[in-house]
Specification:
Layout: H1 9-22, E1 31-34, E2 37-39, E3 43-45, E4 48-51, E5 55-57, E6 62-65, E7 70-73, E8 97-99, E9 102-106, E10 113-117, E11 130-133, E12 138-141, E13 143-146, E14 150-155, E15 159-162, E16 165-167, E17 171-176, E18 188-190, E19 193-195, E20 199-204, E21 210-212, E22 215-217, E23 222-227, E24 233-235, E25 238-240, E26 244-249, E27 255-257, E28 260-262, E29 269-271, E30 279-280, H2 291-296, E31 298-299, E32 310-311
Parallel strand pairs: 1-4, 2-5, 3-6, 4-7, 5-8, 6-9, 7-10, 8-11, 9-12, 10-13, 11-14, 12-15, 13-16, 14-17, 15-18, 16-19, 17-20, 18-21, 19-22, 20-23, 21-24, 22-25, 23-26, 24-27, 25-28, 26-29, 29-31, 30-32
Length: 326
């Protein structure tokens, strides 16, 4: 085993996390209650965490959350005394975990980390978000996230989000760049299950994520909504049974191929006013091999001459193998 004295600070934190995980049985089920607070030194959470106000991880600090931890947010007054910031442009009305330093939340497939409401009768937007702002080198893996406003939101941040489950949120994941920050929004979204939310993935403000191998289904309003985003890569996803599958507004440089986009209630792809650019949507499966039926579930220039045209030629004649969560 590597000598701890020779480890980098980040490797040492992971080493400590591993040791604490091995001895987790000693922690019992005690609950840590966290009010409105700032975390300025490296911190480890485990067990049950009750959050009663905004928690901010400051620059230079790392918060590690161990497998099996439950982070539960009380429904606080909107922009009330338990909020650290009243900036409504980049913050949410109710309690948030605000990450300006670093968050390492790595669960296991059989010991997922839970972020959810603490209320007896939980509801969407009981809490705000895991809100990354001008932050880099973050990981959320094997987490289950429910009853948030926009449960994971990345404001000019770099976060790996993989093997997570999102349900019963207003929006599962939101991404955008903000002015005055040095970090650009870079978020790989890989192997996640996103279902039964108001919206799935909302991409805006010049963000350029890689969205691959996700199950995005049964979301009330949309599966993926991109607006004024940077170049995005959306490949090998199942986008099925949402209100709308993919919504596009003022998007250029989009890679949209090798997905199964079918059985969405309104449209499989819907272009909004302002999407004048044509869209290359070739090499996807649309649930049919009948071009007229495929076209009937696409809103583009055919319905509104101010819009671009969606090119769905070269569509696959069967569902894309290997798409979704393997």
């Amino acid at each position: 085993m590597q000598n701890p004295s020779r480890m980098t600070p980040f490797t040492f934190l992971l080493f400590v996390s591993f040791l604490l995980h091995l001895s987790a049985v000693a922690y019992g089920s005690d609950q840590l209650v966290v009010g409105k607070t700032e975390i300025s030194t490296d911190t480890i959470w485990h067990g049950k965490i009750l959050v009663k106000g905004d928690v901010r991880v400051n620059k230079g600090a790392t918060l590690i959350i161990l497998p099996g931890t439950e982070v539960m947010f009380e429904r606080i007054e909107k922009f009330g005394p338990q909020k650290l910031s009243l900036d409504k442009a980049n913050h949410f009305p109710r309690a948030e975990l605000i990450v300006r330093g670093r968050l390492i939340a790595q669960g296991l497939s059989d010991k997922m980390i839970v972020f959810t409401s603490a209320e007896e009768k939980p509801a969407i937007a009981d809490w705000g978000a895991v809100n990354f702002i001008d932050s880099r080198d973050n990981i959320m893996e094997f987490c289950e996230i429910s009853y948030g406003h926009t449960s994971v939101h990345c404001h000019s941040a770099q976060v790996l989000v993989s093997h997570c489950r999102f349900h019963d949120n207003g929006v599962a994941v939101g991404l955008k760049n903000i002015k005055g920050t040095t970090i650009k929004c870079s978020v790989p979204l890989l192997y996640n299950r996103i279902w039964a939310n108001g919206g799935g993935i909302l991409i805006g403000g010049g963000a350029s994520p890689v969205v691959s191998h996700n199950e995005i289904s049964g979301n009330k309003f949309f599966g993926i909504f991109t607006k004024k985003s940077g170049p995005c890569s959306i490949r090998f996803n199942n986008i099925v049974g949402n209100g709308k599958g993919v919504i596009l507004y003022a998007v250029e440089g989009l890679i949209l191929r090798d997905n199964n986009i079918s059985d969405n209630l309104d449209y499989n792809i819907s272009l909004l006013e302002g999407q004048e650019q044509d869209v290359d949507a070739r090499h996807n499966w649309w649930g049919s091999t009948d071009p007229s039926r495929i076209k009937g579930l696409i809103r583009d220039k055919a319905q509104d001459k101010s819009l671009g045209k969606v090119d769905f030629s070269g569509f696959t004649v069967a569902p894309v193998q290997g798409a979704g969560v393997l």
